[in-house]
Design goal:
about 140 residues, two-stranded antiparallel sheet, mainly alpha, Arc Repressor Mutant, subunit A
């Protein structure tokens, strides 16, 4: 998704793979955002269209990946519930920072790669991309 929320342009998706086998990816952030808003795993499942089981597995995996929990869950409470912990909020902020920095640093390279999708694209001998109209 672009900064303005539109789609259709080349996108960068970042997945962090940790040495302990855990990961943090776009789908995880989608579930995190939904739990933050809905305050439950079931609510997040409904909001995202991701199965309850998969949402629960994401929550469990993230809580097992880090030494501090990402979510606090309340299974015995009426209706249950879940919320993001302060560490979970920090994790989201750090991931967002990585995304912003990556997009900013890679912008010109992504534009050049995207230009090569154009049927009129002809690479220059210097290696720089250009769009040249073919007769």
């Amino acid at each position: 998704m672009n900064d303005d929320g539109s789609t259709g342009a080349t996108e960068v998706e970042i997945t962090l793979h940790f040495s302990n086998g855990g990961r943090l990816a776009q789908e995880d952030l989608l579930v995190i955002a939904a739990i933050r808003k809905e305050r439950s795993i079931l609510g997040a499942s409904r909001a995202t269209g991701i199965s309850y089981r998969k949402c629960w597995l994401i929550v469990d995996a993230l809580n097992r990946t880090f030494e501090a929990p990402v979510f606090a869950t309340f299974p015995g409470r009426r209706g249950g519930g879940a919320e993001l912990t302060p560490f979970g909020e920090r994790l989201v902020a750090l991931y967002s920072s990585i995304e912003r920095k990556t997009r900013s640093q890679a912008r010109s390279s992504i534009e050049e790669i995207s230009a090569s999708l154009n049927p009129n694209y002809e690479p220059r001998s210097s290696g720089a991309a250009s769009e040249v109209r073919r007769p």
